[in-house]
Design brief:
By secondary structure, this protein is mostly beta strands. It contains 2 helices and 12 strands. The N and C termini lie far apart (110 Å).
C-alpha cells in the first residue's frame, strides 16, 4: 500500500505504508522461485494468500517447509510463518531426539464460528518413518500432537487441526488467532536391556550373574572355584560307588 505526499520543494514522494502478507515471512527465510511445495505450478513465494513457505531451520539450508489452509479462501488465513531452530527451546523433558526440519512458528486468523482451523504443512522431502508432529507448549512442554495431526501417504505433508482458545492454540484465548509452534520430531527408542538366562542340570547348579556384577564381585572367582571343587567331589564319589 502506497501513500503519496507533497514535499517542500513541490515534488511528490511515495511512502510505503504496509506490505502485503508476504511480509509474514522473514526476509532472510524466503524461498526462491523454484520452490513449489504444494505442487500447484505456481512458485510459493508468489501466492501468499494460498501458502507461506520458508527455508527450514534444520541447519542444512536445503530443506523448505510451508503452511497452507486446507480449504483456501474460507475462514482460515495464514498471517505469518517463521522457521525456528529447535535449540532455541531449552526444555528437554519429552523432547524428540531430532527435528529433521527444525521448528516452525505460524499464526492463523480464524473467522469460523466453531474456531476450528485445519492447515496442511508441506515438506520439501518425506518425513522419516515413525516421525510425529510435536508441539511445544509453555505450560505443558513438548506434546505429541498425533491425535490432531495426520501424515499423507508419501509423508510429504501433514494435516493439522487446531481450535481457537483450545487444543493447538498456544495463547489459549478465544481471540480469532491461533499461534502454533511445532515441527516434525523423531524419537529414537531406548536400547532394550540384554536378556538374562538361567541354567541347571546334573545335580550341580550355579546361578548366573551379569557381567557387571561379576566385574565388581571380588569373591566371584573364589566361589566359582569352590563350586567346581564340590561338583568334582560329588562326581568322584559317585564313580567310586559305581
Amino acid at each position: 500500500f502506497i501513500s503519496a505526499m507533497v514535499l517542500s520543494d513541490a515534488r511528490i514522494g511515495l511512502l510505503q505504508l504496509w506490505q502485503t502478507r508476504l511480509a509474514g515471512v522473514p526476509a532472510d527465510q524466503r524461498v526462491t522461485d523454484s520452490v513449489d511445495l504444494n505442487e500447484d505450478g505456481i512458485p510459493d513465494n508468489q501466492q501468499p494468500e494460498v501458502i507461506l513457505a520458508v527455508n527450514a531451520a534444520d541447519g542444512s539450508g536445503s530443506k523448505q517447509i510451508g503452511v497452507s489452509p486446507v480449504a483456501v479462501g474460507t475462514d482460515v488465513f495464514i498471517e505469518a510463518l517463521e522457521a525456528v531452530a529447535a535449540g532455541t527451546i531449552a526444555e528437554t523433558a519429552n523432547r524428540p531426539t531430532d527435528f529433521p526440519f527444525g521448528l516452525i512458528n505460524y499464526r492463523l486468523k480464524v473467522n469460523s464460528a466453531d474456531g476450528i482451523a485445519r492447515v496442511t504443512v508441506y515438506l520439501s522431502e518425506a518425513a522419516p518413518a515413525g516421525a510425529k508432529w510435536y508441539k511445544y507448549d509453555t505450560f505443558k512442554g513438548w506434546i505429541d500432537y498425533s491425535d490432531h495431526a495426520e501424515f499423507s501417504v508419501d509423508r510429504r505433508s501433514v494435516t493439522i487441526e487446531l481450535k481457537d482458545g483450545d487444543y493447538g492454540d498456544l495463547d489459549r484465548i478465544v481471540n480469532g488467532e491461533i499461534t502454533d509452534p511445532g515441527g516434525v520430531g523423531v524419537t529414537t527408542s531406548a536400547t532394550p536391556p540384554p536378556a538374562t538366562s538361567g541354567g541347571g542340570g546334573g545335580g550341580c547348579f550355579i546361578d548366573s550373574a551379569s557381567p557387571g556384577t561379576m566385574h565388581h564381585n571380588h569373591h566371584f572367582s573364589y566361589l566359582l572355584f569352590l563350586a567346581t571343587l564340590c561338583c568334582g567331589i560329588v562326581i568322584f564319589v559317585r564313580l567310586r560307588r559305581g
